[in-house]
Amino acid sequence: MIIVMKMNATETDVQRVADRIIELGLRTHLSQGEERTIIGVIGDNRPVNREMFERMEGVEKVMRVLPPFKLASRDFKPDDTVIPLNGTRIGDRQVVVMAGPCAVEDRVQMREVAHAVKEAGVKILRGGAFKPRTSPYSFQGLGRKGLEILAEVRDEFGLAIVTEVMAPEDVPLVAEYADILQVGARNMQNYALLHALGANGKPVLLKRGMMSTLQELLMSAEYILSHGNYQVMLCERGIRTFEPYTRNTFDINAIPALKGLTHLPVIADPSHGTGKWDLVAAVSKAAVAAGADGLIIEVHPHPSRALSDGAQSLKPETFARLMVELQAVAQAVGREL
Ligand code: PEP
Ligand code: MN
Q1: Cβ contacts of 242 within 8 Å, gap of 6 or more
Q2: Residue whose CA lies nearest to ligand 1 atom number 8
Q3: How many C-beta atoms surround the C-beta of residue 211 within 10 A?
Q4: 3-class SS of residue 130
Q5: Computed from CA positions of residues 283, 322, 165, 88, in that sequence, does the dihedral angle turn out positive or negative?
Q6: Rounded Cα gap, residues 172 and 165, in angstroms
């Protein structure tokens, strides 16, 4: 249930409503929009008398939120969520690009790629230290050592870091180094991890599971939001279909659909969405045209030697060209890069 306050409602009005909700054994989540405050009522509120709230001072209306995701819904928070980070504002007018290799391999590789993506205008560097690999015999990432390399490169180049965390017990460690904690597709429904990230409070990039619906993605986001951590970005990274030519099928529909359903920023991952470097540019442009708030793109100085996802990684020159081409697309849809 949400309680929409009147435009001229006072702080005291809001407080009185919040106090009443707490008296009933429920919790509140406040959404302070540009025009009005909306109070989310969290908990089993089926027995709550709506009219009682409707009669309170400053209340405009009381509504049941129909979708099962509440805090993530546009009903609860009509204004876009904006996450400020390293001089950029994710979810605002600017389309934010995150780029870097699939995995942190060594210091030389990371410095080379950080230099290249920074030159191309990027402010957020990606690179996995903990890698979820299909085979236990594949490169699993450098772990803590990888995080240390990321921290060095962050300091040297002034880039923010997005990196994956795979287990709830690793959240404190990864959060020491990361500016954005990535939840991989395979962990989208690792609820213990989602709870830990909610409690931690740092920005989260939540990737859509390869076989998950948009509603399931939003329910996973809800876990994080329910702790009061609203700094969540959703990431479309392709879903599994019957088509074997590409690694995944990038679901372009997900972008405008999510933008309508939720206030959270939507990021597109054309690298995992296609699995083929030569498709990445076209799908990146399509994602920006469809309304994505950002892109996360794999870039490797020597893709043929990459320890993971070389086939879908762009060389720095190709990436730099794409960044220029994306400007025109962003402009065409009223955004900037
Ligand atoms: C990645 O970002 O390198 C990754 C493993 O992504 P996903 O979880 O989407 O497969
Ligand atoms: Mn990858």
Answers
A1: none
A2: 184
A3: 10
A4: coil
A5: negative
A6: 10
User: Which of 104, 161, 182 has the most ligand 1 atoms within 8 A of CB, as the residue to mutate?
Assistant: 182
pLDDT band for position 67 (cuts 50, 70, 90): confident
| Sign of the alpha-carbon dihedral angle for 43, 46, 48, 51 | positive
Q: What is the CATH number of domain 2-63?
A: 3.30.70.1140
Which residues lie below 8 Å from residue 215, measured CB to CB, with a gap of 6+? Answer: 67, 68, 69
Which residue in the block uniquely carries the two structure tokens 């959404």?
A: 31
In this chain, the answer to whether the domains covering 2-63 and 83-332 adopt an identical fold is no
Distance, CA 299 to ligand 1 centroid (Å)?
13
> Out of 3.40.190.10, 3.20.20.70, 2.40.260.10, 3.30.43.10, which CATH number does the structure's domain 83-332 have?
3.20.20.70
Q: For residues 245-268, b (16+ Cβ closer than 10 Å) or e, as one string?
A: ebbbbbbbebbebbbebbbbbbbb
- How confident is the model at residue 43, as a pLDDT? 83
pLDDT tens digits for 125-182?
A: 999 999 999 999 999 999 999 999 999 999 999 999 999 999 999 999 999 999 999 9
Asked if residue 126 has its Cβ within 6 Å of ligand 1, the reply is no
Asked if residue 300 has its Cβ within 6 Å of ligand 1, the reply is no
